[in-house]
Amino acid sequence: MDDLLKAACAAKQNAYAPYSGFRVGASIRSAGGGIYSGCNIENSAYPESMCAEAAAIAAMVGAGEKCITEVLVVGDGEYLCSPCGGCRQQLYEFADGNTPVHICSSEGLRKTVTIAELLPHAFGPQNLSTTKETDS
Ligand code: ZN
Predict the structure, then answer these.
(1) Domains parsed from the chain with CATH numbers
(2) Core vs surface per residue 102-131: b (16+ CB within 10 A) or e
(3) Which of 38, 88, 117, 121 has the highest CB neighbour count under 10 A?
(4) How much distance in Å is there from the Cα of 88 to the middle of ligand 1?
């Protein structure tokens, strides 16, 4: 996990957060073993801002990978910097319920949860499948 934390902290240093001042870094490990990171990118038109997790996913997909095996998010402050609701959905698109999400501060790990814990009863690609599957 140290490699993920190092990548996320490096990305966090490049965060563009002039409005909130709240910088976030995220990194993901793909099934191919690659590590992709991203930072939050704010915009003066606030809704056009991008979360660090979404930036990391964009880097992974852009590199031709589509399967996340591990996620790490790092942010500052006393509260856990867990992925926002939108990012939970975006992560689930390329992961599964058992995928670990490490929530860290710059000093290290604070908590590890799974995607299923963050997004129970998730709507995902399985819902659009033409084959009938049971709820998992
Ligand atoms: Zn988010």
Answers:
(1) 2-125 (3.40.140.10)
(2) bbbbeeeebeebebbebbeebebeeeeeee
(3) 38
(4) 7
Using the mean position of ligand 1's atoms as its centre, give its distance from the Cα of residue 84 in Å: 4
Written as six digits, the tokens of 135 are: 């709820």
The catalytic residue among 53, 65, 117, 133 is 53
Length of the chain: 136
Task: Please state, as a whole number, how many other Cβ atoms lie within 10 Å of the Cβ of residue 28.
Answer: 30
Q: Which residue from 73, 116, 84, 83 is spatially nearest to 98, judged by alpha carbons?
A: 116
Phi and psi for 101 in degrees, rounded to 5?
-125, 115
User: Rounded to the nearest whole angstrom, what is the distance from the C-alpha of residue 131 to the centroid of ligand 1?
Assistant: 31
The reply to whether 53 belongs to the active site is: yes
